[in-house]
């Protein structure tokens, strides 16, 4: 059944071109044994998905999209449809990442449509939720998470496979992950709030040392890794931390 193993996803964001993505995927695979107790996926840019799919063919590593269209295939210039990602073998899609919410103005209603589209086409949504520094300071962490979860999940069945990524916006791109105590509290709150089966992963400044700590946390079902996933050695060390758990 999907959902048993922890999931580690490397989010390459908009950092690499097609050639660089293929090279990094190859470097990552070099000398890397097939993980035994961890599911590993990488999320290249949309442009590089096709080429990276070729590199990952016949390996246990899965492909993740960084975004999907809010609507199905059709006259929607510049968008990428979930059904076409599914055709390429994309297993997961990151949806509602804070960079998209903030930079592209994606709101909860759009996020809900994207979650529904991905899910409908059997691309498992990774719904990102998390509070900004200002929201945390104002004591709004729980209300923000509650709203993002309630609205983001409004259009999918409670039985549909799902991953939630807790990504405190204030930790993303930084040098230090959120303190364990706060990660635990947020994961516990998310688990209680959704009240359905889902893997709940953490994302925000994860490196290998942090991964070794998080791997021991029973409520942390995996990691969404940004900048550390751009370094094949660092990403392999993160996977190893989960394998050695
Ligand atoms: P980071 O990014 O690891 O670079 O903080 C995480 C994310 O945005 O998913």
Q: What's the helix and strand layout?
A:
Blueprint lengths: L6 E5 L6 H12 L9 E5 L5 H8 L5 E4 L16 H6 L2 E6 L2 H6 L4 H13 L3 E6 L3 H5 L3 H12 L10 E4 L13 H15 L4 E5 L4 H7 L7 E4 L6 H12 L2
Parallel strand pairs: 1-2, 1-8, 2-3, 3-4, 4-5, 5-6, 6-7, 7-8
Share of helical residues: 25-40%
Q: What ligand species are in this complex?
A: 2-phosphoglycolic acid
**Number of DSSP helical runs:** 10
Taken in chain order, the helices and strands follow as EHEHEHEHHEHHEHEHEH
The largest β sheet comes out as: 8 strands, parallel, barrel
- Count of individual beta strands: 8
| Mean of residue pLDDT values | 96
- Strand proportion, as a percent range, falls in 15-25%
Strand order of the largest sheet: 1-2-3-4-5-6-7-8
Overall shape: it is: globular
Structural category is: alpha/beta
Characterise this structure.
The chain is of the alpha/beta class and 245 residues long. Helices cover 39% and strands 16% of the residues. It contains ten helices and eight strands. The chain has an eight-stranded parallel barrel, surrounded by five helices. Helix 1 links the parallel strand 1 and strand 2. Helix 1 packs parallel to helix 2, helix 5 crosses helix 7 and helix 7 crosses helix 8. Bound molecules: 2-phosphoglycolic acid (PGA). The site of 2-phosphoglycolic acid (PGA) has 13 residues, from strand 8. The site of 2-phosphoglycolic acid has 13 residues, from strand 8.
């Amino acid at each position: 059944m999907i959902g048993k193993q922890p999931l580690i996803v490397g989010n390459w964001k908009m950092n690499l071109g097609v050639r660089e993505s293929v090279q990094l995927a190859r470097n990552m695979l070099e000398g890397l044994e097939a993980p035994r107790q961890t599911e590993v996926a990488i999320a290249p840019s949309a442009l590089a998905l096709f080429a990276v799919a070729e590199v990952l063919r016949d390996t246990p590593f899965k492909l993740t999209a960084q975004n999907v269209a809010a609507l199905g295939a059709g006259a929607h210039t510049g968008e990428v449809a979930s059904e076409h990602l599914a055709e390429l073998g994309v297993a997961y899609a990151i949806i509602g990442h804070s960079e998209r919410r903030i930079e592209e103005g994606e709101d909860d209603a759009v996020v809900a449509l994207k979650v529904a589209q991905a899910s409908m086409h059997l691309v498992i949504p990774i719904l990102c939720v998390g509070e900004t520094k200002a929201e945390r300071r104002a004591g709004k962490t729980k209300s923000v998470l509650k709203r993002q979860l309630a609205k983001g999940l409004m259009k999918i069945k409670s039985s549909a496979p799902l991953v939630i990524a807790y990504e405190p916006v204030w930790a993303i791109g930084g040098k230090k992950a959120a303190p364990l105590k706060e990660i635990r509290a947020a994961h516990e709150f998310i688990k209680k709030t959704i009240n359905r089966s889902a893997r709940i992963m953490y994302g925000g400044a994860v490196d290998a040392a942090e991964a070794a700590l998080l791997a021991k946390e029973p409520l942390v079902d995996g990691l969404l890794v940004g900048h550390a996933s751009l370094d094949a050695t660092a990403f392999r060390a993160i996977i190893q931390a989960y394998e050695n758990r």
